Amino acid sequence: MEYFISKLEDKGMHTKGELLKETIETFNGLLAIYNMGSSLIPEQINIENEIYDVPFIIDTTKIPSIFSQYQEVYHVQYPQDGHNYLKFLVENETDIFINPNTLGAGIEIELIPKTIYYRDTIDSTPNYKVNFEDQMKWGTSRVVDSINIQCRVTYVSDYDTITISKNNPKIIYKGGEIILKEMKNNYVHIQLSDTIHDLLEIEGVTSKGKIIGKKYQSDSETPLIDAQKKYTELINALKEVREEVYLEQLNNNNEEFRRLSYNKLSKLDFFNPESDNDRYYYKTIYFNGEVDKIKLYIKKSTRESSMNFMSIANTNYGSLIAEHSKDFASYRILTDTGELITKIQSENYPVLSQDFRYYEINGEYFHLNLNKKELDRIITDSIIAFDNDIVAIKKDRDHKGYELFSSEKIKISNYEYSKFKNDYGVLFGFREGYFYIINSNGKEKTKLKRVVDIEFGYERRFQIMNKNDQYGLLDDKGKRIAPMVYHYIGLFSEGLALVQKHNNGNYGFINTSGKVVHPFVYEDAYSFIDGVTAVKYEGTYKLINTEGKVIVDSKSDNLFMPSVNGREYHFDYSKVYYNSKGKLVSE
C-alpha cells in the first residue's frame, strides 16, 4: 500500500485521477476473471468434442539456439525528458527468434547488464533491465556506446510428479498438503499448502490417459469467494479516492491525498497479509473434456547455463545529442556525457545536421556556438545538411548558389553549387554544368564529365545519366563501373543487375564490375532471387540460374508471379508453378 501511494503522491491531481482510473480498470479485469470462474458450471463434454494438449515436457533443446540468437545485438537510444530510453534489437531478426516468454514451464531466461560503457566512464554495477520488446528507461540522457550483457538460462533438471484423483484426493508432500477439494466432469478445485512452492504445471488426464486442454484457470491466495470480496472492496475504495481527486476537494495537496488514501485503503483485506491466515492457496480449473485424475509437476532442482554478449550502439551520435520533452515542445542539447549546452523551444524537430550544430526554428536558421553555449542566427532562407557534417548555406535570400561550411561555420570552399546529391556518405555538388564528388573537407575530388543527373545510390553504387537519358554506374570513388549506354539499370540482386540498352529492346545482366555476363537476348526478365529468375527467350518463359543455365523450360508464353511471401513462378495460367528456387510445387 505504501508503495502504491508513493507512486501517485508526487503526480499532479489530473495525472493522479488518470492513473487511478487505469488501476481501477486493471482490477476490474481481474475481478471479471474471478466472476467468470464462479459463473461457470461443470459440464459433461462428449469424447468427440474433447480438446487435447501435449504432455508436459521441459524442452532444453532450444537453449543453444537461445544463445546463438544474441550473437549480433544492437541498441537504439531515445533521449527524452531527462531520461535515456534504449530499445534492444537483434540483427537479421526473423520469425525463428526465440522470445523468452514463449519457452514454456521450467525454463527461464534472464538478460543481465554487467557493464555499461559510456563515453566518459564505465558502470560495472548497473541496475537496469533488458528485453527485446519494449523501450527501457536507462538513467539520464548520455551516449551509451556498448553494453556487456549476460544471458542466463535456468532450467529444471528434476521434478516430482504428484497424482491426485477421487480415489486418492489428499497427498502429504514435504510437510504440506495437496487436496482435491472437488472434481466433477470438466471441473477441478485444488487446495495447496503455502509451503508447496515451485509448481510447474497442472495436467488433466482422461480415463484413457490423454492430456486434456484447459478452458479456464484461476489462482487465488484465498478461497474464490474471499478473492472476489477483496477485489470488490479495493475497487470501491479506489473509486472513492478518485472521486475526491476529480472533484478537486484535495486542493492539489499531496498530504491530503496521502491521508485520504491511507484512510480508505489501510483497513482493506487486500493490503493486509494477516487476512490470509488459512495457510493455503487455491487452483480452479475447467478443462476441455472429462477429467479422471490430475497430475502436478513440482520443481526439485535446477541447472544454469550462461553466456555474455555485447550490445553495440546503432545510433550514430557524435559529441552532442538532442533530448526532447515529453510533449515535444522543447529540446535540450547535451554533450555526449550528459552536460547541458542549451535549451530550444520548438514544436517541430529543430535539428538539421547530424552533428547537432545547425538548426531550423520557426522558419529561421541558427548555428550552435559551443563557446558561448547559445544559438547564433544565420540570415538565409535555406540550409542543406549532409551526411559528412558539411552544410550548404544559400549566400543570401536573392542568391541561387550555395556555399559549403564546416561544423564550426567556417567556409570550406570557394565555389558555389546550384544542387546536390548525397547518399551513402558521398556528396555530389553541381556547378557550371558538371557534378563533382566533394570530400569531408569541402574539396572537389572528381569531376564527372557528361553526367547531367545522379539518380540514386545502392550498395555504394550510383546511377548516373547523360543528356540523352542513358544510364551508367559510378562507384563512391568516382570510378565508372558501367558506361552510360543503358535505357534501364535495375538494382543489384545476388551480384547481378538487370539492364536494357534500348527502349523495347532485349534484356541482359551485368555484374558488380559492370561486365555483361548474360547477353541481351531476353525478351522479358526479372531480378534474381534464391539463385533463380524467369526470362522469356525464344518465345517461351524459362527459369535460369545465375550462370545463365536453363533449369526449367515452361514451354509457355504466359507467366504470373503472385505477391506472396517469397517468389513463385506460375506458368500457363497457373496450371503449373515453381517456388523461388525453381522446384516444382504443383502441376
Q: What structural keywords apply?
A:
mainly beta, single chain, flat, 4 domains, 587 residues, 9-stranded mixed beta sheet, 5-stranded antiparallel beta sheet
Provide a compact summary of the structure:
This protein has 587 residues and is mainly beta.
Q: How would you portray this structure in words?
A:
The protein has 587 residues and is mainly beta. The protein has four domains: 1-39 and 224-274, no CATH class; 50-222 and 278-317, no CATH class; 318-379, no CATH class; 389-448, no CATH class. Helices cover 13% and strands 44% of the residues. The protein has five helices and 43 strands. Strands 1, 2, 3, 4, 5, 6, 10, 11 and 14 form a nine-stranded mixed β-sheet that branches. Strands 7-8-9-13-12 form a five-stranded antiparallel β-sheet, with helices on one face. A four-stranded antiparallel β-sheet has the order 24-25-26-27, with no helix packed on it. A hairpin with a 5-residue loop joins strand 10 and strand 11 (211-212). Helix 1 (2-9) packs antiparallel against helix 5, helix 2 (13-39) runs antiparallel to helix 4 (224-246) and helix 4 (224-246) runs antiparallel to helix 5 (254-265).
